[in-house]
Each structure stands twice: as C-alpha cells, then as structure tokens.
Design a protein that fits this description.
By secondary structure, this protein is of the alpha+beta class. It has four helices and seven strands. It has a single domain, classed as Aminopeptidase (3-Layer(aba) Sandwich), CATH 3.40.630. Helix content is 28%, strand content 36%. A seven-stranded mixed β-sheet has the order 1-2-3-4-5-7-6, with helices on both faces.
C-alpha cells in the first residue's frame, strides 16, 4: 500500500509541527497566527496522552499528515467526549486519506468508551466544515466573530458527532 497509517512517535515531531505550521502560515485551518516552535510537539504529545495519535506516511515522502483525539475537558464528567484534530498536506487531500484516518480514530475512540466527538473549526475553513458534515457531524454551536487572523475576523464553529 502506498500510504501507511501508524501511531505517532518521538521522531515524528519535526514533521508534525512542520505540517501544522504550513496551515498556520497558509490558511485559516490552524488558529495560531505565527509559526510554532518544534518544542511544542512534547506538550502536544502530552495533550493526546492515552488517546489515539496517528501519522500518515507515504513511502517516498515520509509523514504527510497527522491526526489525534484528545480530552475535551479535564473534569471526569466529560470522559466520554473527545476533540478531534487532523491535518494533511494539500497535495494529499482529496485522496480519502482523511476519511481513512477519521475511521481509525473513531474506532479507537469507541473502544475507549468515547461516545461523542467534537471539532472546533474556523468558519473560514469551508473544506473542513464540509468534510465534517459529510462524515456525520452537525454544527452544534458557533461563537460569532471571536477570532482575528491576518486582519480577518472569523467565527469558531463547533461540530459534534455521536459515535
């Protein structure tokens, strides 16, 4: 198979953050305004600790995407809820890789007893909103005009899927 989906490891840090930084600099898909240091990988691993965190590799190109679920809230009353995050480099989108990664994460979430997945998306990321809608998510909330990136205001859209 041309693409491999595997659990993240420490050696993936530079590539994972480079992918995230691509989206920071070139889109509204990632919220930060400025590139992040590669040192942010360790807190990212900690945030996803105990939850599935995968990378997508293409044999010739290495890591071309990643995705994970993490705690929605620290209180144990929300243990059956998780938030979903993933990014795939643009040349590899529209190849059903997002769907494959999404299915892997959902299956592991179910095994963990997760019943609800949430996604927090900028209103300017229509492709992500459309992807989530096509995969059974529904918009469940919207914070209007709370973000500003590149001098452009945006809403934060919350989407939810019961699994």
């Amino acid at each position: 198979m041309e693409y491999n989906f595997r659990k993240v490891n420490e050696k993936d840090g530079t590539k994972v953050i480079d992918i995230f930084n691509y989206y920071i600099e070139n889109s509204f898909a990632a919220f930060p305004e400025k590139k992040l240091s590669h040192a942010i990988f360790q807190p990212l691993l900690e945030m996803a600790k105990g939850y599935p965190f995968y990378v997508i590799e293409k044999e010739a190109d290495g890591v071309i995407g990643f995705g994970f679920i993490g705690r929605y809230h620290q209180s144990e009353v929300f243990d059956r809820v998780a938030e979903l995050t993933y990014f795939i480099l643009p040349p590899y989108t529209k190849k059903r890789l997002g769907t494959r990664l999404f299915n892997i994460l959902i299956n592991e979430a179910k095994e963990m007893g997760i019943e609800t997945l949430l996604a927090s998306i900028t209103s300017l990321n229509k492709a992500s909103i459309d992807f989530h809608l096509a995969h059974g998510f529904k918009e469940c909330g919207r914070f209007e005009n709370i973000g500003k990136k590149q001098n452009t205001d945006f809403d934060v859209v919350w989407m939810q899927k019961f699994i």
